[in-house]
Each structure stands twice: as C-alpha cells, then as structure tokens.
Write a structure and sequence with these properties.
The chain has two domains: about 150 residues, no CATH class; about 35 residues, no CATH class. About 60% of the residues lie in helices and about 0% in strands. It has a two-stranded parallel ribbon with strand order 1-2. Helix 1 runs antiparallel to helix 4.
Length: about 200
C-alpha cells in the first residue's frame, strides 16, 4: 500500500525540528573541534589535502595526537554532509521556499567550508585563510539558527523606522532614535542660574 499525502506530511513535520537541531549542533561541534585543532597546533597533523598523507587519505604508521585530532576533524565533515542532505530533503518536502533556501545554503556551505579548510593546510595555515574558514563556519551556524527558528512559521522581516505593533508583544523593528534631552532647559543654564536671571529682570 502506498503512503498517503497526509501521512507523508506527518513524517516530514516529525523530522523538521530534530534535523534542524542536528544541523545546528553538528556545525557547532565542528567549530569546537576546529578550535581544538588550532589550540593544540594540530593544523598540519595531516600535512596535505585532500589526502592525509601523500600516499593515503587516512593516516598510517604511528598515529600521534596531532594527526588524530586533525583527521578526526576532517572525518566529522562526512557526518555534516549526511545531516545536510537529510535536512535538505525534508525541508524541500515542506514546499516552503524559505526553508528550502536555507537548507540549500547549509548543504552548499559545508563542502565550501571543507575546500577552504584544505586551502588552509596547503597554505601552511595562513592566518587570513584560517579566519575565512572560521567565518564560513559561523555563517553556516547563523543560517542553521534561523532555519530552526523558522520551522513552525516564517520569521517576520525586520524593519527600521517607526515601530508597528506586531501580533505578539514584541515589535518587529527598532524604535526611532530620540533626540537628546537638555537637562538645563531651553537656555542651557542650570536651574539656579535661570532663577537668578528671572529675578534680576523683575516683575
């Protein structure tokens, strides 16, 4: 027997939030492991890319700590790819354009991030490339957060200017800037000086 449209929609809705969380958490873990690579000086634990050594994609011989940390960080990318593909499939089945777009950005961002990581190794940990590698990870996490928040309904766009009350308690824009208030009044003089001037003028 085939699966009805309603049953397929129930299955899709059931996996939206778990996969959204999986996308966010896995990318956050990648940043943590990347930080471990940086702090332990393991960036060249695998001295080349995409192979770990000139002869193999995996480390051979004596496996030291630096090689294990770097290779583990690279291996985590495959987990992220699997989660990103599953997330994209589920988000696509919702029919919502916003979720499809964000899932596609995450799915394309992960291989782009891996390529930047490879360039980092090939350039002997150039600090500019290292920074770009981190920024790419943070951008993916930002998209993952917005995607997770948009699971139930699309987020309202943010506006600047006079606030319009939203359906809920919080406004959807920034309040307009208020002009500074002069604590001394219009004349700019303190209150006791204004009183003295007024008394000198008489009735």
């Amino acid at each position: 027997m085939g699966v009805s449209t309603a049953e397929a929609r129930v299955v899709t809705d059931r996996w939206l939030r778990p996969l959204g969380w999986a996308t966010l958490v896995s990318n956050a873990v990648l940043v943590v492991t990347g930080g471990a690579v940086r702090l332990t000086g393991s960036g060249l634990g695998c001295p080349t890319w995409p192979r770990c050594t000139d002869q193999s994609f995996t480390p051979h011989g004596a496996l030291d700590v630096h090689t294990a940390i770097e290779f583990g960080n690279r291996t985590l990318t495959f987990v992220l790819v699997a989660i990103a593909i599953a997330t994209f499939v589920v988000m696509w089945r919702t029919g919502r354009r916003d979720l499809r777009t964000m899932a596609l950005v995450v799915a394309l961002g992960i291989p782009a991030q891996a390529v930047i990581g490879g360039i980092t190794v090939l350039t002997d940990l150039n600090p500019w490339v290292v920074s770009l590698h981190l920024l790419c990870s943070l951008a993916i996490i930002g998209v993952a957060v917005r995607m997770l928040l948009s699971v139930d309904a699309p987020l309202p766009p943010a506006h600047r200017g006079p606030c319009q009350p939203a359906k809920k308690e919080q406004p959807t824009c920034w309040p307009p800037a208020q002009p500074p208030v002069n604590p001394h009044g219009r004349t700019g003089r303190p209150a006791h000086q204004r009183d003295h001037v007024e008394r000198s003028r008489g009735p």
